[in-house]
Amino acid sequence: MTSRISFSEVKQATKGQWQNILPLCGINSSYLTSKHGPCPVCNGKDRFRFDNKDGNGTFFCNNCGAGDGFKLLGLHLNKSIKETFEIVATHLGDQNFNNKQPVYVSPKISTMQAKEKLQKTWDSAIPISPGDPAHQYLTQTRRILLDRIPKSLRFHRKLSYYEGSAYINSFPAMLAVVADLSNKPITIHRTYLTDDGKKAPVSNPKKLMSSVENSINGAGIRLYKPTTILGISEGIETALACHVATKYPVWSAISANGMANLEIPDSVIDIIIFADNDKKGAGQTHAKKLEDRMLTAGKRVKLLIPPEEGSDWLDFLIKQGELNG
Fold it and tell me: Model confidence over 9-63: pLDDT tens digits?
């Protein structure tokens, strides 16, 4: 969809729009001021400034360096320049380039609106059950044989999918509650699916809804109740696979950046980090950040990385036959 659009067209369309685009992609507007303050990427407390020169989303951080809105978003999402370009182009919407109309980006909704929308979405979903698309996705497409489905996951029969402000279609979806350290739900992670349990044919089948908090830093998907032991992985599917293989309670941190910032209950003593073996090292780097932080907090930590480059623990466990008998 976005391949028809050149980078120069997208860059021109984003001019003056970054204070709308960045909140839509997870960077709260509280970071987007000209005053020194905390960094949305590295969490430094007084090292970041969003100066937005010439409307290009420019920033400076004593730790992360300087750049434009594309670089800032790429660092925040842990995405390549190409992936960031695709995400931004999707949020802007193809129609804006085809008919050369002014770019429209939906404004960030209020906390109350976000809370009401989250509750409505969750209440309209049902527990995952054998045969539905979410169950097929987990057990057949991703090949994870689960004895039971965590209550933090649900199935939505028909959930609307938007790209920017444009409605595309409605799809079945797997929902997951994202909660903070106090276990308060702050947003919902959505995995859009087909009727036969595959990922939906859209540019971003996995999305987060607007949060009721300024940031989701520190939050995660609490799939299983921790004991004194807790496993951590990036994706939901990898977390479920690691639970099946080890019987440990495992949480999903959602992303590499989420893993680096995940907050762990004081009651947890032993932490197993199931890192991704990314080709560019992002998964390993952010997992190491979590390891260092937890060791400093007095936890016992094991950092595990699958042997094959470009793989995660779900890939490894499938190859080893640990998930499907």
Answer: 677 778 777 877 787 677 877 788 777 888 888 877 777 889 888 888 899 888 8
Q: How far apart are CA 239 and CA 251, in angstroms?
A: 6
Say what the pTM is.
Answer: 0.69
Domain 229-319 falls in which CATH fold?
Dna Topoisomerase Vi A Subunit; Chain: A, domain 2 (3.40.1360)
Q: How far apart, in Å, are the Cα atoms of 206 and each of 190, 193, 200?
A: 6, 9, 9
Residue 277 per-residue DSSP state:
B
Residue 287's φ and ψ, nearest 5 degrees, are -65, -40
Task: Report which secondary-structure segment, H or E, holds 168.
Answer: strand 166-179
In the structure encoding, which two tokens stand for residue 34, read together?
């000209």
| Distance from C-alpha of 155 to C-alpha of 174, rounded to nearest angstrom | 5
Residue 37: which of 15, 59, 21 has the closest Cα? 59
H helices present in 176-312, as ranges: 236-246, 256-261, 282-296
Domain boundaries of the chain, sorted by first residue: 2-98, 111-208, 229-319
- Pairing mode, strands 229-233 and 59-61: unpaired
